[in-house]
Amino acid sequence: MKTINLPPYAPTLMESTRAIGYSLEAAIADIIDNSISAHASSIVIKFFPIGEPYISILDDGFGMTSDELNIAMQYGSKNPREVREPDDLGRFGLGLKTASLSQCRTLTLVSLKDGELSGRKWDIDYVMKTGEWSLIILENDEIKQVPQFRELISQGNGTIVTWQNLDRLCIGESDFVTSFGMKMDIVRDHISLVFHRFLSGEDGLKKIEIQINNNKLKASDPFLIKKSTQLMDEESIIIQGQSVIIKPFILPHISRLSEIEIKELGGKDGLRKKQGFYVYRNKRLLVWGTWFRLMRQGELSKLARVQVDIPNSLDDLWTLDIRKSTAIPPEDVRKNLGNIIGKITEGSKRTWTYRGKKETDDSKIHVWNRLKTRQTGIIYEINRDYPLIEQIQDTSSEVKRLLEQLLVQIEGNLPLNSLYIDLTSDEKVENETKISENETIDLLLQLLAGCRNNSERDEMIERLSRTEPFSEFRDVIERKFKGEG
Predict the structure, then answer these.
(1) What percent of the residues of the chain are helix, what percent strand, and what percent coil, each to the nearest 5?
(2) What are phi and psi of 146, to 5 degrees?
(3) Rounded to whole angstroms, how far apart are CA atoms 403 and 387?
């Protein structure tokens, strides 16, 4: 068989791969992937928009030798079909180069490992001049001019990635300094979300500190794990002997969230737009805010979030792209995801409708009863056995008659349409009456005063300890009233 060697023409390939479609935030996230794969515990990002602007990313990972630097700077340095380490976030052997040069024309890589200091540079303009894959080897005095060089030396090992000649960030900008700062704000939010599990050190995962211009990033948890409800036990889907782990969550109603938490979730608009599946590859967030066309985004499902964890060994099945911003589940996974969507959306709907109250909980006495009938469907009625209502009814037959008419009028004139609109909007709905401990005691004394004997009194105390809102002060009731005759 006759063959000829046809290596790609360096200037053309370099310029072409710049147009793959990286955003600034996605490009920086790709560099952070390499740092995490190198077992870094600290990643320091610095940007400088004045004079000769640059972005530099320093990590304290293993670092690289001179030969390893050459491989890292080579296009297609690793076959995507090769078996990777379970915690490796890389994929195609192109990320460092394509991500970096999508934003700049000069990429510098400096690394320190076991006392060996090395530096390499891709300069697209120099490659265009030579017409060759001309990787520049940096001399020591050139290495010392690289941003964060002193920090690298002081920590003893690690790598610096530096972007200069930021032509793509300058295009169409009349005020580059301002626009650069605004773009880096987007980078902050993106990294806080994409790497939130590493930033928080979730479930024994190695905790990583990431800084941007000396400001530490905080994890942006899209599930609000501490407040949300896990709808069901995690499910494991086995594909080619590998597990895909699924955990569905329901966020608390917006009225239970602070302004900071609402902002963390992407604002009020973000609640609706960011519902759906959150796909993680080796704990790194790839895709979010999509139902993969298994259902439409709706108002009553806006609180539903589903965590999907996949290993890097299933990359081919999920059609992962170079930017690691697209992942499509294989058919076997889609079927299983479809099976749990109904349960997920029903849980979200209940949270919007009942805001977390379990109206069917017989251990508590509620003001409202929710009833389902064949004739009229679901109706709400005021609980006639509520202790305060019983107390008023016992005063006289005339008062009982007037009270019943009042209750019927309240039940028959509930503003259901307005309630539906309010509950499915992003406005807070606050209508719960807060009662203090002193008010509780005073009200209890009034109710107990109507008891004719100790038996009725004990029964009343027991009922009130299970009645809203008195149940919030159950310990007070038991301490002050139980056992007193």
Answers:
(1) 40, 20, 40
(2) -75, 135
(3) 14
Instruction: Report the pLDDT value the prediction gives residue 336, as an integer from 0 to 100.
Output: 77
Alpha-carbon gap, residue 475 to 464, rounded angstroms: 12
CATH topology of domain 10-216: Heat Shock Protein 90 (3.30.565)
* Cα gap 262→260, rounded to integer Å: 5
The answer, yes or no, to whether the previous bond of 80 is cis (omega within 30 of 0) is no
Query: Which of 184, 160, 168 lies closest to 25, judged by CA?
Result: 184
The amino acid that residue 221 corresponds to is D
- What is the dotted CATH code of the domain comprising 229-354? 3.30.230
Give me 176's structure tokens: 């580059």
- Residues 462-474 have pLDDT tens digits of 777 777 767 777 7
Claim: this prediction has a pTM higher than 0.85:
no
* d(C-alpha 222, C-alpha 280), whole Å: 12
Classify residue 150 as exposed, middle or buried by CB count within 10 Å of its CB (0-12, 13-18, 19+).
exposed
The mean-pLDDT minimum among 192-201, 269-278, 295-304, 351-360 falls in 351-360
The two three-digit tokens of residue 262, written as one number: 């609402």
- Of the candidates 87, 97, 98, 73, the one whose C-alpha atom is nearest the C-alpha of residue 37 is 87
- Unique residue bearing structure tokens 């891709």: 122
Nearest partner of 284 among 207, 190, 197, 188, judged by Cα = 197
